[in-house]
Amino acid sequence: MQRRALLLSPVMSTLDFVELRRGYLPLGAWPLEAPMRRIVHHRLGQPSELLRVEEGPSGPLGRPGLRVAFFPAPGSWRDEVLVPAESVTLLPDAVPDEIGSQLLINTGTALTAVRTAHEAVPADSRADVVVLLTAAGSAVGRLLDKLLTDRGVKVIRLVRSEAGADRLAARLPGSPVFSTDATGWKERARAAANEAKIHVAIDSVGGALLGDVADLLAEGTGTVVNFGTLGGEASDVRLFAPRALTLKGVFLGQWMRQPAEVRKADIALAQRLALVPQPLFEVAARYPPSRIGDAVAHVGRPGRSGMVLFDFSTARGAAR
Predict the structure, then answer these.
(1) Which domains are delineated in the chain?
(2) Could you tell me which of 95, 86, 85 has the C-alpha nearest to residue 41?
(3) Predicted model pTM
């Protein structure tokens, strides 16, 4: 399949490549990418794209006018790209472009973290599970909260600021949410667990917060499942050895190693989540690629709510 007219691309994965946080190649030489016809999305080191088919062979996935997501496929920012048919997912008309551009990558990342977290919980402690979740207001954080609570897990959500906590609680009520900037937040998080041991935390912040999260985990069985370092600073692992804790890293590439039938079910779940009348896939702003610096700065802005997208439909222009 060929494609032209790249439209939207989430900034987070691009940020990872630009800053070489994950040891990948720089822009223009990425090892894994995921296109979608006419709209494109990148996140967490593994780009995923959404686009509209404008050229290609006839057939169910080649008919011009279809919107499809594809992941993985190399060279997704090129004017033309060949995409394996098995990497392509048709998008329902009811799914808006902004949601379609982040659908596969965010859901795949979240499900990978959830499965790893499940495996980390001791077999004799899988009833009344409590999970700590950092960056709970982020796009993947919101999905994680949804996926975990739907599985009967009690989630204790952590965000950076009091304003962010208030905003998240108003937008997505349910699980308790605490600001890590507030005095005594760890005591309140412990109290929210109702004396249950916390065996797992899912983290995408790292930095000093990693040490604070480790302090809340059950000694000897606690595991932090990490898929990012939004804090941008060295992570504090000093408590892991003396408290016999485990740190497990996950990334979207692991999702691609799942059996085909599992990925198919995950994609169906992602499409159902896209229709949920909740703000799981908010967009904070859209920038043309010529303003990559502004887009990256927006990603790190305190209190940001939603995904920052690259908009390839215009070469110039203001954020919107």
Answers:
(1) 8-105+254-311 (3.90.180.10), 122-250 (3.40.50.720)
(2) 95
(3) 0.81
Tokens for 262, please give them: 């599992």
- b vs e for 69-108, b when ≥16 Cβ sit within 10 Å of the residue's Cβ? bbbbbbebbeeebebeeebbbebeeebebbbbbbbbbbbb
Say what the alpha-carbon torsion angle 254, 257, 259, 264 is, to the nearest 10 degrees: 60
Which class for 299: exposed (0-12), middle (13-18), buried (19 or more C-beta within 10 A)? middle
Q: What share of the chain is helix, strand, coil (3-state, %, to 5)?
A: 35, 20, 50
Token pair for residue 154? 């009690």
Nearest to 46 by CA among 80, 79, 74, 4: 74
- Distance CA(272)–CA(252), nearest Å, equals 20
Assigned token pair, 128: 């009344």
Q: Which amino acid is at 216?
A: L
171 burial type by CB count under 10 A (0-12 exposed, 13-18 middle, 19+ buried) = middle
Greatest mean pLDDT range, 4-8, 80-84, 118-122, 251-255: 118-122
Give the pLDDT confidence score for residue 13 in this predicted structure: 47
In angstroms, how far is the first alpha carbon of the chain from the final one? 31
Task: Take residue 54 and report the two structure tokens written for it.
Answer: 């404008």
